[in-house]
Input
Amino acid sequence: MKELVVNLNTGLHGELSVPGDKSISHRSVILSSISKGTSHIHHFLASDDCISTINAFRKMGVRIDLAGDELTVEGVGLDGLSKPDTKLDMGNSGTTTRLLSGLLAAQKFTTNLIGDDSLSKRPMKRVSQPLSVMGTRIETTDGHLPMTINPGHIKAVKYELPMASAQVKSAIILAALNSNEDSVVIEPQVTRNHTETMLNQFGDDVIERHGDEIIVHHQPELTAQDINVPGDISSAAFFLVAATLVPNSHIILKNVGINPTRTGILDVLIQMGANIKILNQTNGSEPAADIEVTYTPELKPIDVNEERIPLMIDELPLVALLESRANGHSTITGAEELRFKETDRIKTVVEEFQKIGIQIEELPNGFSIDGSKDWQVVNASLDSHGDHRIGMTLAVSALLLDTDVQMNGEDAISISYPQFFAHLKHLSD
Ligand code: S3P
Output
């Protein structure tokens, strides 16, 4: 049980470099492991989820050294992975599980994947189904982990994703690299494109995009690279929102990734009237910038619907928090995918927010929220439910309270942001 900091009346101040992007860090391990040569990855996110990915590749014979946030990977090439002598433990990581399913579908050996309780409740048919169409036999446990992947000869597909999911898209792309013909993946809405961007760095024109069609060309070889991982906008988001909401705050977050497939939270903040400035933008393969945030006393309520959801999928608990402080009523809809995250985030957000007096109701696919600055705590015992992003959202919410509150399950935060409380302290001192 952790005592949370409440009522920071001096506000948040100073500069902060948030840890590396989680999605990009996972992909950097995966692609450097299956390329030829030694890759160096800078500002790698050494969090529990990314360590699950590293451990899986180490078990398949890849030499990986991690020193602080510097990672060195001795790639073994597209055909060089070896059969692990145990089951591969995916921990809590949906990204590891789904991306590796695609890659393992095309190996010469069978693998067994297991995960923790939360991961074992998350849907895996969304990857086993398209990978079966491509020629793999995947045995799930009622659509969940544990899962056995019996690889096959990979056939090209034209696959229309039934849901907007970068993990499922990436699984199909990683399998399709091994087919002799081009595959096409069609997404219903644009989702994060880090797999496509990084593949085009490790190989030549591996991916082409035409409208909503992503074309994957067969790749005989990928070559080792130097990768600079930008700060994770999904981690920066906790402080973007905290500094917007906590009186007297003024912070600068350095070198945050602003790939347009991830910046929905910035659009929401700006549309609500928050004081946000984008500074010193760099335009590498993954664009980045410093983001300056100043406390904003009045926020306009806005309705967020389906179209924009994938661009801020992991930030929706924070969007709900912003709306909870806004001047009026708002809704978030088209977000049923939140039910399939580390927890059912529609349920856990509503349950925890109601404890601190937020007027929020569950919708089948989102939230209905009455914004107010007058929250009366009804239950001071909060719970992350073992979900890192719920834990951090609650820690930010607590900054706005006058009553002491505690949180259970704060250790889940190390899934994506082990330094979160140290960084909060740095900005509050
Ligand atoms: C991720 C994709 C998203 C996101 C997750 C990371 C990725 O999941 O929620 O945190 O790295 O591809 P879905 O593909 O399930 O939407």
